[in-house]
Design goal:
- This protein has helices spanning 5-15, 28-41, 57-70, 92-110, 131-137, 143-146, 151-160, 186-201, 231-243, 262-268; strands spanning 20-23, 45-51, 73-78, 115-117, 207-212, 215-220, 248-251.
- With 269 residues, it is an alpha/beta fold.
Amino acid sequence: MITNEKYNELINYLKNLGKVVVAFSGGVDSTFLLRAAKEALGDNVKAVTILSPYIPKWEVEEAEKLVKELGVNHEIIKSPIIDSIRYNPEDRCYLCKTAVFKMILETAEKQGYNYVVDGTNFDDIGDYRPGLKALKELKVKSPLLECKLTKAEIRAFSKQLGLNTWDKPPYACLLTRIPYGNELKVEDFEKIEKAEKYMMSVGFRAVRVRCHGDLARVEVDRQDRKRLFDEQLLDNIYQKIKEFGFKYVTLDMQGYRVGSFNESIIKNG
């Protein structure tokens, strides 16, 4: 049991919602929110996860495991690549969130839930997140944002609650690995997922493999870049990622940063 004013505020906020569906990805924020909702609402909470070509299969499997551990009812909604984002427009996050959350809202309404809630936190409002506009328009509630919980606080509370996601690196959907304006292809998502899973298997927890056609641009955490000075490791990475379908493999010398494809939007905006 956590005795903290902000945490208690969150629990009371959730209690007042009555019966909720949590949009659940299995990340740090949504896992903490689901755990808090279970504490506040008991069986009046349900987790809903989206399964699409741009959501890694391993992440959905992790989400299933986490929900089972928390003892929460869980539903997976399958979604294809949505036509409106087929060519990865700059507002794809807004378009995708709108379509996906309409599916979740429809499920919630049919099953008698009062609200859909998501894991947007207080720090998210300072980042480039066009998807927040969609959530606001659809009246999706963001309890962590409303209670002004920061990422650091969420991680700290998660650790206190014994959630193994407390130190999980941030992980965005695979749409962020494709340059804006490029056609989205299932085969590209498959090779990106395999490449990133391999990089994680050799110890790079925070990693992105950006797809530029036949070329993979690998970003690892800035603190991990020195590990790549090992020639044998470089050879192994090169061979493996080529096996997954890329013809060329390159390393981004600046290292991993959130939303590196957004840099062009911000500069041009």
